[in-house]
Amino acid sequence: MKFLDYQAEARSNTFRLIALYGIGVLALGGISALIVHVSLNLGGAPLEELSPQHWSLVLTAAIATWGIIFLGSVWRMAQLGRGGKMVAESLGGTLLGPTPQNALERRALNVVEEMALASGIAVPPVYVLRREQGINAFAAGWSLDDAVIGLTDGAIKKLTRSELQGVVAHEFSHIVNRDTSLNMRLMGVLHGIVVLSIVGEFLLRTRSSSDSKKSGAPFFALGLGIWLFGSLGAFLAQLIQARVSREREYLADASAVQFTRDPEGIGRALAKIGLESSYLESSFGRAASHMLIASPHEPTLFNLASHPPLEKRIRRLLPAWDGRLESLATLKQIEALEADFSRPTEYQRIAQGADPNLELLPMQAAFIAYAPSPSSKGDTSGHGAQNSGPFFSTPSDLLQSAREPFEARLLLLALMLEDEPRVRAGQLTALSAMPQNELETLPKIANRLTQIDAPERLPLVQLALGSLASLSAKQATYLATQVRAVRLALPPLSHRAYCVSRLTLRHLEEPRPSASGNALGLSSKAAVGRLLGAIARRGNSSLEAVERAFAAGVALLPQATRPTGLPSLREIELDSIDLALDLLLNESFESRVQIVCALRAAAAEDGILRALEAELLNTFRVCLNVALSPELSEPDLPGVVRSRLR
Amino acid sequence: MLFGIGLLVFLLIFVVYAVGIYNRLVTLRERFKNAFSQIEIQLKRRYDLIPNLVETAKGYMAHERDTLEAVVRARGAAMSGLDKVHNSPGEAKMAEFAKAEVALGQALTRFMAVAESYPDLKANQTMSDLNEELTSTENKVAFARQAYNDSVTEYNSYKQQFPPVIVANLTGFAERGALLEFADSAQIQAAPRVSFSAS
Fold first, then answer.
1. Chain B residue at shortest CA distance from A227
2. Which of A182, A235, A501, B1 fits A487 for a cystine, CB–CB 3.0-4.6 Å?
3. Structural domains of chain B ordered from first start
């Protein structure tokens, strides 16, 4: 099965989910009606003799239950609309900053960074669940760019680097396979069903926290009753979670191997989880169990685990395994200074032996998951010591800046500055509301940025975007206005700076599909044409090559979205692209996937993915909300660019 | 009976709503705590820089012992203030810490002013690197502090709104989040430069 099929499957799972949810809700309503019926009719009178009043009560019970479930779901969905951050915070996660407190947390940050750059998505914020000693991890978020990664303290302290890498890769595959958005939906919807048990627990806890007062007793009885009924709901919810998520876990395990090329890492991590525990203390864990790498609670009576048994998962990863967990893992705390770097990944080996004449492309460069080379052994500080991964020409202090919110912000703004003096002056004027000292540094940074190789710009942007997570809402809004101001001062064909601005805005604000393109008479066909045209025209110099690239993209599109002809230069101006992207976000998911595939084909037509082509492709796919990392899911190695992209 | 069920349903909806508010309170509190740990990171970095600075300056300004000692003392006070805030945050502790921070800022300013009159010291590469680093760290502190104050304000004002205020008082969210304001820290707000130069 190919990568995009997985994404499509995630969608069809959604329909199954809705069906199961419907059944669950109906059942709960029915049961509460039954309870009312039986308790009012203890005498066992025949049904015909019961008064209409009796039946109206029974009906009320059912309707009330449905109402509460429905309200619970709707309202939780609204809350989750705030994204993956919200999930991490509900679980009590602490955001890991640019300079973590100890070497182990730094190592975790490094691993996440490596994986993000390897899979070509912006580095997600990392949350640590400091109170949790079990080994577990999760990924949450609605889309690629609001995803977060969460790791328990146990996972950080008890796993070796390669094991941690396997776990993080597992979570990343949930992100790129679109499981996280399915999971978010699942979590919101199920909240309605488990809401009663949570309410019961809440009441029980309120009582115990105010022990001294005696007024707690009625609370306790009410809480107990609701909790019992709610447990039934929780049981149903588990049934649904189990149904949807078990298969995805195998898939994510398999993808983790494809990311790291190392089945042992994830295999040993799972063995360690088996020896230790993956249980969470937070009661919220239950609602999120399908997001975690292993079950957050003890197995229940009816084998309803949201995760397949660890033994089976390990067996699939390591067929030669002897079945004893101890043979894979020994339990000990990882010493902070133990240098347990994994061996170089396949990608890195390929890159090391790569043809030096081959133009190094951002995606390819990004593939070199940068397991620190043996030479950096003992240097657990990792960051900044030696440039690694996709970065060769970027000075380490710029990388360090990208990891720090205050400077990452300036770095992104500087990446949007044009070289042409008049344009740049205009852009700086647009920013004149900024503090003077910050404004003065922008051109300095921009000048330094010209020294780095073009293919490293995109990974640098992705690194910097990850740091924006710790901005407050106010700061984010302010930055968005600044980005807009710089963007408006851009000349109509500065696609390079445009990509940075678009990606940054996408990170700072909720995307809203807009139909303003429609109002101007823009059809989907023409909109697709503009995107294809931009990639074809900016990626090739001769008109002949442009037309070939354009045709390669068009060939992959169905009639409904197939553009008629190569757009003029006017039609690929930034404002036109803006309209096209906003309009196409209204298209169905399948159709957006087709569009992105066509764009990729156009970019790769000549067998070389140039930096600007990669930047445009990445920006378009993020704006269309389509995960695209087929290279990582296809079995062939990224040896030759052409074979990978075709 | 119908009335009874109606009441029960009403109660249930109310409790569901209360749980939601509780969750939101937890989220907001977690968020500002996160924001504070970002400030802490930068502040600790700054505290680590100061001894190096003093050490470097010692050789040049042996006659300025008082100024140097004042900086070291202020640093110690600010550090223990940060520890206290970390262990039990509260408005009183926070105000105390802010005071210590302002004192440190003033001591540093005095130190810099004195250092100006030693040309050899000014020319010292280590000194100017440290100075640059310090400035840049102060900018980061200011930025992180802004983020922290924003999220504390969000938490406090949510907590004061009508239905949340009841839930907050019932469930141990009574204490307000403490803002971190540096009352007269002109030298920190008008931090001169950002370190980005190719050094």
1. B12
2. A501
3. 26-193 (1.20.1440.20)
